[in-house]
Amino acid sequence: DIVNPKFVGLLGRSALRTLFPELTSVRKVQGQLLEDKYIPLFHPANILYNHSKKTEVEFGFHRLKEYLNG
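RE: above sequence
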């Protein structure tokens, strides 16, 4: 109860599947608010392996920023 974040970013498929095993793809739910708290995001390391994913990765973090700013 000491830590009670307003939102939790789920970085990558492993984090997403840990809390939502029925969801198989970050791409389908990226940037959406799940259960009013969880925001699935592509893991930033994706950019290191595939620079063309930069826009997708940034999109999710921009959505997170929008949620934080209300």
